[in-house]
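Anyone opening a protein record will find just a pair of labelled lines. With that in mind, the following record should read easily:
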Amino acid sequence: MAEDRHAGKAETMRPGWSAILCSLLLLAGCANPVAQFYQGMTDVRSKPAYDASVRGVQIYTTDDFERDRLRLARKGFFPIGQSTFNAAASSVSEAQVREQAAAIGAHVVLVASRYSHTVTGAAPMTIPKNSTSFSSGTATAYGPGGTVQAYGTGTTTTYGSQTVMVPYSVARSDFSMLFFAKNRSLVGIALVPLDDATRQRLQTNIGARVESVVDDSPAFFADILPGDVLLSIGGAPVTENSFSGLVRQHAGRLVTFELDRGGVRLTKDVQIGAPY
């Protein structure tokens, strides 16, 4: 994953071009698209497992969400939401990503973008069209005292406007963002449901597959591995839905985990973390 940072640059517009800028802004839209198209948890900080000790937001570009999601899972970061949309490439900034991450309590954001197409056209712009005319003249006045020459000038301004078409070209891209938060885990494993082939092999619907193991967690030191099938905790059968309740039930205690590893039944003694 390579860290991705984009710095916005302000430009000074010459008088008369502000109307063009406004037209283009209307085409691109003014709302934060990252927030507008976000789906997921609205504020993960309300969850008991949320690790509030992590500060700041890290933003990374990715070309493989699944690979980098599993890498982050090993560090204890788990997905909490996503945002996908198509927008003008220049209308999406790092500040908008950080704004949404801060709003929901995310610690890490994976970002991918890919050019999709270019929108071209012309936007109407009304500009002043004023005309000014100048006139001058002389006059001779006669009187008892003689003659007098008089000179004069005049200015006349006619106000109007005209509409011109200003061409534009906007490159658009598909954006995908995955938001993560760091969890304090009592065991340090993430589970996914069993696939049909594993159910057939085990001849049971009970169990869940270990998708990832958090580094330096109780499961890590007990040598539980990704791909293991967790069958029971403390003698109680495990499913993906019952796992969290069983872990809380045994929090702070040394408990036996029964596993299937490639057809071999194993038991591992896991020191479950203290409740928080």
